[in-house]
Amino acid sequence: MDSLRKLYPWFALLGLAVGGLVLAGYYKDEFREWKRWQQEYAAQELNRATTPEQKEQARALPIEIKQIVLPELQRVDRCTTCHLAVEDSSYAGVKQPLAYHPNHARHPFEKFGCTICHQGQGRATEREAAHGRVAHWEHPMLAMKYIEASCAKCHAATDVPRSPLLARGRALFEEQGCIGCHKLGGFGGNLGPELDKVGAKRSPEWLAKHFKSPAELVPGSGMPPVKRSDADVAALTLFMLGQTGERLTEYYVSMKTIPGPDIGQRLFGQKGCIGCHSVGGKGGTVGPALDGVTQRRTTDWIVKHFRDPAAISPESVMPKFNFTESEIRSLASFLGSLTGADVLSFMKIPAQASPVERGRAVYLKYGCGGCHGTSGEGGVPNHNAKSNQQIPPLTAANDLADVFLESFITEGVPEIGKLDPNGPKPPIYMPGFGDKISEGELADLISYLRSLKP
Ligand code: HEC
Ligand code: HEC
Ligand code: HEC
Ligand code: HEC
Ligand code: HEC
Ligand code: HEC
Q1: Percent of the chain, pLDDT > 90?
Q2: Is the CB of residue 97 less than 8 Å from the CB of residue 44?
Q3: What's the gap in Å between 370 CA and the centre of ligand 4?
Q4: What is the domain range of residue 196?
Q5: For the chain, which has fewer Cβ within 10 Å, the N-terminal or C-terminal residue?
Q6: Using a 6 Å CB cutoff, which residues line ligand 5?
Q7: 3-class DSSP assignment, residue 293
Q8: How far away, in angstroms, is 318 Cα from ligand 5 center?
């Protein structure tokens, strides 16, 4: 009994400690950051209220966790618990988190939430956790300078309006011939890993550093360093970050290609319109010249005519192409751009290109430049390769007969001669393209190689 009494002071102390913890918990909860922003928002609303009803409404604003539930995206985004005014344009330019969100009309928050574009941790209500800057959260919020990467999850990277860095990154990816060693979307080489999900796996910092010096991060890496400006490396990094391999339901990818004149121009080339129509005095004469057609015809007429030419112009011989509405919008906007100076740039449609120009396109398509330089100039390192520890340039193709060029390209060179016979195998070999490349492409490619001068 006595011994128990001795413990009384300890019980008392324990009781105090528990009480303290409860109190601390209460205070922590009461002073959670989000509550502060909601109080601040309510105060601002009250301040802005002019009528008694508005004041009443402002006073009645509940202090509560807000969330957007997105079953199709498998997300619950609570960002609007703090970012309360994203939909109220009168909050434009106000300090975060109480600012209006520009340009969201095309992506209503109730369908898109926030994290599909920004990443971060949707369910969290503490700032650092929500912004994903905590351990064990794989998708920290994208820095704003990389935000365009998200557009590529749903839209083709080449033509998203207001996304110049994304378009630049996509163009560099092609120009640098990355596809010569990497698969993206099922197409490309095998020397490096597939890149379809790399944006979900690697951080922007890692990617940028790896581009500049692959071997520093991955010892013995066969990937050649990207010798480009910091801005270009950032654009490539951004393009990679958009490759997250996320599986999205139909609605979210329904606008894969955003209609625009570039797509219209592509369709114009692919569908052979020029066989029947002329532009800038060149082309066929079965149908009318198309310069200035948008001055003769209304957009509505043009759209209906594409849907079914014969329904608008009885007995028209123009085929019904079964275009989608988005393709029709693209063609109409392309036709609208056919004025004066534009006609010249338009003349570069594939069907009219020279064999050398077409060959250049083949060179880009298969990523030859990733190994031989963007214009065949060589200089790409290949450790311990007999050819000067570099991949050879292609500027001496004229010294090789067609049959040799053809067999190099179709069969490749699986074993590269070693400089030091006792040294390691050179990491980069020449893959064979025989099972991929068509005869026409091969002929064009050879024309291009022959045009290269040292
Ligand atoms: C607890 C409140 C809170 C929550 C929850 C919250 N934020 Fe924020 N957010 C802020 C505050 C405060 C700022 C401004 C200060 C700062 O940048 O930390 C901010 C800033 C931002 C910025 C601008 C950052 C920059 O680099 O310019 C973005 C983007 C953003 N939040 C997105 C989100 C997204 C997406 C979510 C949900 C995953 C989210 N926020 C959840 C409070 C919050
Ligand atoms: C469709 C993609 C997309 C969605 C969805 C989206 N945002 Fe944004 N957000 C952007 C882009 C792009 C910007 C840059 C501003 C602009 O539109 O030009 C931006 C800007 C911001 C900013 C300002 C950052 C700064 O530097 O000032 C904040 C904060 C923000 N978003 C939070 C949110 C929150 C919260 C949600 C969800 C309610 C959300 N965003 C949903 C794409 C998106
Ligand atoms: C999760 C998928 C998704 C993401 C991410 C996304 N979009 Fe979209 N976007 C869509 C869908 C779906 C539509 C069509 C919406 C509709 O009309 O219902 C659309 C529509 C658009 C349109 C209008 C197209 C037209 O002509 O009607 C533009 C422009 C656009 N998005 C640009 C962007 C930009 C810029 C970003 C990156 C900041 C982005 N999108 C991110 C899915 C997405
Ligand atoms: C000569 C072949 C070659 C070329 C050309 C090449 N890569 Fe690589 N790449 C590799 C190899 C091999 C690896 C694996 C070793 C490493 O991570 O460095 C790699 C790794 C990568 C990784 C890391 C992938 C991961 O899952 O960790 C990225 C990202 C990448 N390359 C992007 C690019 C881009 C973008 C280009 C064009 C600018 C490019 N590569 C050009 C061979 C190449
Ligand atoms: C087989 C020949 C043929 C092909 C191929 C063809 N058209 Fe036509 N197109 C015609 C003829 C004939 C007319 C005039 C009769 C009519 O209005 O349908 C015409 C009319 C038009 C008009 C209306 C011109 C005006 O001034 O009234 C437009 C616009 C047009 N075509 C665009 C195109 C586009 C774009 C393509 C390719 C996607 C295309 N056409 C393919 C034969 C063709
Ligand atoms: C993954 C890297 C890689 C890619 C992609 C690649 N090559 Fe090569 N190529 C090489 C290497 C390495 C050699 C040197 C072979 C040797 O040492 O015999 C080579 C050799 C050649 C040669 C012989 C040059 C000479 O002077 O001996 C030609 C021609 C050639 N490649 C053309 C192409 C074309 C065209 C493409 C695109 C269709 C292409 N290569 C894509 C790595 C590559």
Answers
A1: 78
A2: no
A3: 10
A4: 150-253
A5: N
A6: 268, 271-273, 275-277, 286-288, 290, 293, 296-297, 302, 305, 309, 313, 316-319, 321, 331, 335
A7: helix
A8: 5
